[in-house]
Every structure is written in structure tokens, then in C-alpha cells.
Amino acid sequence: MEENLPPGFRFHPTDEELITFYLTRKVSDVSFTSKAIVDVDLNKCEPWDLPDKASMGEKEWYFFSLRDRKYPTGLRTNRATEAGYWKTTGKDKEIFRGAVLVGMKKTLVFYKGRAPRGEKSNWVMHEYRLENKHPFKRTKEEWVVSRVFQKSLAAKSHSRQHPRINL
């Protein structure tokens, strides 16, 4: 699909669009496919392998995945891969469509190694899920849509060296 887009156009949906257009359709019809978002088991892939699995994207990649439960009867999510684990940072952000809560956004950072001694990487994931009262939401098997990207270390250090001054 990206090859068919004119130069300068990118797939860059808003948080609300990811939930209301893509995730809602995936949850209501598991056979729903998107040219821009592919199904991937994120626990079986290292973040640096994900760009090759994506159907499009240069700096950020999008995936549908089922949340993997840590224990068969529990609700805790397994976020470990062979090389490391995704760790939640901060609290979840509510995503609204107008005044209606449609979903939640969780931010995770990938750490190489095993908790609690993992080494923080620059890989970041934004995981979007439907809000709890959604009619299609199941309790055990839950689809999410994720945006994966590498946080720019240069931009971070650049912003610290040159604070923005409003004149």
C-alpha cells in the first residue's frame, strides 16, 4: 500500500482512529485485515525484528496481537520475549471520541535481559485496547493494536542542550 502512496504520505493514524476504526473492526470480526496493520504475536518477536514483519512503515510500525496471559486462569499479561521484556511506564491514558471513552493507551519500553536487571532500550510500544464496557470485548482473549518505534536518543539529548525559548 505504501508504494502506491504519493511521496510524503505516511500511515500515521491518531490514537482515536486506531481504536475506533481499526481495533473495533478487528475485535468485532477476527477475519478483518488491514493493508497497514498485520497480525503478529509480539511475545514471539524481538522489537528489532518487527520492522521486517510490518507491511509498511519507516519509523513506526503497527500490529494487531492477542494479549498473551501470563497464567491460563489469570488476567496478568505476559510481556516477555526470548531476549527481554516490555515494561509498562506511567499510567494508562484514556482515549476519547468526542466525550465518549473508547479505549486506553498503555506505554511500554523494551528491556534486554530479565527483570529486574534488564537493560533499557530505545524501543517503545504504545498498546491500545478497547475500554472495558465495549460490547465486543471478551475477558480472556483480547485483541490490541500496537504502535512500535525507536525513541530517538539524538532528539532527547538535543532538546536538553538547547532549551526552547519563546521570544
TrEMBL record:
Q: Output one GO BP term.
A: regulation of DNA-templated transcription
Q: Gene3D superfamilies, from UniProt?
A: NAC domain (2.170.150.80)
- Keywords on record: DNA-binding, Nucleus, Transcription, Transcription regulation
Query: Which SUPFAM superfamilies does the protein's record reference?
Result: NAC domain
Where does the NAC domain start and stop, copy by copy?
A: 5-151
Keyword Nucleotide-binding listed: no
Taxonomic superkingdom: Eukaryota
Q: Does the keyword Nucleus apply?
A: yes
- Molecular function (Gene Ontology), one example: transcription cis-regulatory region binding
Q: Record's PROSITE patterns? A: NAC
What InterPro entries does the entry give? NAC-dom, NAC_dom_sf
Known PANTHER family for this protein?
A: NAC DOMAIN CONTAINING PROTEIN 58, PROTEIN CUP-SHAPED COTYLEDON 2-RELATED
The protein here is known as: NAC domain-containing protein
Lineage at the top is:
Eukaryota, Viridiplantae, Streptophyta, Embryophyta, Tracheophyta
